[in-house]
């Protein structure tokens, strides 16, 4: 397939193996070996997806991910040598779309990449709708995927917008974590409900004056989340 991928890891043998395998499916595979180099690549090129190691020299992967999110919604899969949940949760909090723990199988990496790209393609088709949702002082432009509260633009990541749009299109309907995972991340996503909780917390921090007393996105304890103004 056509497409451009950025692989970031300071272990050159890992980068070499990933590049060799990915070049069978993608037309361009760029490689970076430290965080600063990765950030420069991301600023100067348009990528379909980025594989980003957490432990990097000069600038760690979480910082790179956070800075990329300031100017791009490119899908990011974090690579981590650690198996503990904290690394995975931190990666999601910093704006990553998925994570893979080393050592990994290249076939799993490719499958995860294709799943994310498929979901993004569906999201882009949905965004083609010319639809504006007005709820209180919130305005959601589903066509341009922009959010405004009291006329002020609010920057959301792709997944945060997807979650808000889904809930706002169906006000009052309670979605369980599993339902949200399937609707926003796709049937084949291997994560769990904590993924939803992390993104919801970040979403509330951006749209709510007081996230502990939300005005827009509410929690139905023991069930899930719903939108109401």
Automatic annotation (TrEMBL):
Q: Which InterPro entries match?
A: CheY-like_superfamily, OmpR/PhoB-type_DNA-bd, Sig_transdc_resp-reg_C-effctor, Sig_transdc_resp-reg_receiver, WalR-like, WH-like_DNA-bd_sf
Known DNA-binding region: 130-229
Residue stretches making up the Response regulatory domain = 4-117
| rRNA-binding is among the record's keywords | no
A Gene Ontology annotation in the biological process aspect, one of them, is: regulation of DNA-templated transcription
Tell me the residues on which 4-aspartylphosphate occurs: 53
Sorted keywords for this record are:
DNA-binding, Phosphoprotein, Transcription, Transcription regulation, Two-component regulatory system
Gene3D superfamilies associated with the record: 3.40.50.2300, 6.10.250.690, Winged helix-like DNA-binding domain superfamily/Winged helix DNA-binding domain
Q: Which residues form the OmpR/PhoB-type domain?
A: 130-229
Question: GO cellular-component terms in the record?
Answer: cytosol; protein-DNA complex
- A Pfam family of the record is Response_reg
MF annotations from Gene Ontology: phosphorelay response regulator activity; transcription cis-regulatory region binding
**What job does the chain carry out?**
May play the central regulatory role in sporulation. It may be an element of the effector pathway responsible for the activation of sporulation genes in response to nutritional stress. Spo0A may act in concert with spo0H (a sigma factor) to control the expression of some genes that are critical to the sporulation process.
Q: What is this protein called?
A: Stage 0 sporulation protein A homolog
Organism, by scientific name, is Lachnospira eligens CAG:72
Instruction: State the organism's lineage.
Output: Bacteria, Bacillati, Bacillota, Clostridia, Lachnospirales
């Amino acid at each position: 397939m056509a497409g451009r991928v950025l692989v970031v890891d300071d272990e050159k043998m890992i980068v070499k193996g990933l590049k060799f395998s990915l070049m069978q499916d993608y037309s361009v595979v760029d490689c970076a070996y430290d965080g600063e180099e990765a950030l420069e690549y991301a600023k100067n090129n348009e990528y379909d997806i980025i594989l980003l190691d957490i432990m990097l020299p000069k600038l760690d992967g979480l910082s790179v991910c956070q800075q990329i999110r300031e100017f791009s919604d490119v899908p990011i899969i974090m690579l981590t040598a650690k198996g503990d949940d904290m690394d995975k949760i931190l990666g999601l909090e910093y704006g990553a779309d998925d994570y893979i723990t080393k050592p990994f199988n290249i076939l799993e990496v490719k499958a995860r990449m294709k799943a994310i790209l498929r979901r993004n393609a569906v999201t882009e088709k949905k965004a083609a709708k010319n639809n504006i949702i007005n709820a209180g002082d919130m305005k959601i432009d589903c066509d341009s995927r922009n959010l405004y509260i009291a006329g002020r633009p609010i920057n959301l990541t792709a997944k945060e917008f997807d979650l808000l749009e889904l809930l706002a299109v169906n006000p009052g309907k309670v979605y369980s974590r599993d339902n949200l995972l399937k609707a926003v991340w796709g049937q084949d996503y291997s994560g769990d409900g904590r993924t939803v909780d992390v993104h919801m917390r970040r979403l509330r921090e951006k749209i709510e004056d007081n996230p502990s007393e939300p005005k827009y996105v509410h929690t139905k304890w023991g069930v899930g989340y719903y939108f109401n103004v």
